[in-house]
Amino acid sequence: MRGVYRAFRLESDGTVSVLDQRLLPFEERYVTLKSAEDTVEAIKSMTVRGAGVIGNIAAFGVYLASKESSGDIEMIEKRAKNIRESRPTAVNLMWAVDRLMEIAYKSDKNERTQRLRDEAIKLCDEEAQMSAKIGSFGADMIEELMQRKGLKRVNVLTHCNAGWLAIVDDGSALAPIYEAKRRGLDIHVWVDETRPRNQGANLTAWELQKCGVPHTVIADNSGGHLMQHNMVDLCITGADRVGLNGDAANKIGTYLKALAAKDNGIPFYVALPSSTFDFTVTDGLSQIPIEIRSEKEVTHIKGLTDKGEVEEVRIVPEGSAAVNYGFDVTPARLITGLITERGICRADKESIKSTFKDII
Question: Quick one: pLDDT at residue 1?
């Protein structure tokens, strides 16, 4: 087991260091999590974000709860509840906390902290392996598409950030892109800016640049135009929760890209590990909770000035109301396929049940 990943790492003293994603791409700084409360704050403030990494950090949060309480189960329960409720949409968070609590209940007090530490690392290692398999299956699909259409270069459009900052170690939506590059395929990525927090412009572009993947940042509303002019070959996004019927919740704006892709006959894939499924959901629109975040994320924007200083400025008039829905739901009918660690399945109940029958 490793305990060291690109977005975070378990230190020798038992604390967890996380890359502060709020500061990217202008500054790379790690924050140290020493307690369960630190974990809650990191998740709520989006110091860490992305469905998978939120779950990973939540798992380590349960371990930290045991560490700071010397294995007291009542204290662990209380702190685990706070972690579980820190954000509502990404189901990986709840899944990870519940998995760690199963270990907590089965462990004796004197061994509880060590067993939770080991389980948190095991969970993250499994997610890294899932990411690699998602990358492999997705890259196979990209190669097949290029051969079938006679493409020398493939143009992929993605929304938000679903790379290694979001899911260890290559991500979900970006995993096929990284694997395609390793195979020597000529691949270019259209990166949606992803307002209001600009996770595409700030995080995805930063990741792709680090890995030497050709990419172009675009305004969120440019995707449909590019599709109409045959400048997009396929779309791949991640997800924060996918129902048994194939409905997928992802960063706000994903639904509009899926509509445009459908209208232009462009494949639209959602990439996810099995931990992102919520098999209790049979209707995403009515059953998946949608987080409403601070309106300040809409009314203000952060950037780097010509003087090299990071500043936040207001971009709407004082007194104008704003609303900030964090996610939307893309209906299964608009999704070409789900790229998972078990292969690519259709976004429908029959195919999902067949693929994951042993864990449903």
Answer: 59
In whole angstroms, how far apart are CA 214 and each of 41, 209, 235, 345?
A: 35, 7, 16, 28
Phi, psi for 290 (deg, rounded to 5):
-110, 120
Q: Cite the active site residues.
A: 240
Q: Is the pLDDT of residue 222 over 70?
A: yes
pTM of the model: 0.94
Give the CATH H-level superfamily of domain 8-126. translation initiation factor eif-2b, domain 1 (1.20.120.420)
Q: Compute how many other C-beta atoms are within 10 angstroms of the C-beta atom of residue 332.
A: 21
Q: Which fold has domain 134-355?
A: Rossmann fold (3.40.50)
Of 191, 115, 176, nearest to 146 (Cα)? 176
Mean pLDDT of the chain: 96
